[in-house]
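Page 47, continued from p. 46.
Same chain as before, 137 aa.
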Amino acid sequence: MSDKEAVRSANRAFYDAFETLEVERMERIWLQEPHIVCIHPGWRPLSGWGPIMHSWERIFDSTFEMKFDIAEIQLLLHGDVAIVVVQENLTQRGYDGVAKSTVLATNVFERSGSEWKMVLHHGSPVAMPRDDEPPIQ
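Result:
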């Protein structure tokens, strides 16, 4: 498997873990180091293993179901670091009912041995485009 294929696989594993709503699966995706960062849409930056895993617990505890339709926008690979920019089309079901949203996310992976581990996830909500704006492909 090429490095790009391995990074795409790691990125897909992140969204698979997200959809399971299982913290244990999410833990396997992230590098266990103090320099990791997560910025959920609308949240302040979180740094380090403990705060980031606690954030996933909070999100998963308040959600019944999440489904992602992911469109890869760009994949950049430089040595042992890979950056994947995606558009997340998310449908989630929680205590307030069903909600749909679009988020642009930057996922950064670092090679750790033979695996690619997440070191940064940054999601930014997308406001609805004007009618004359073409959708992101």
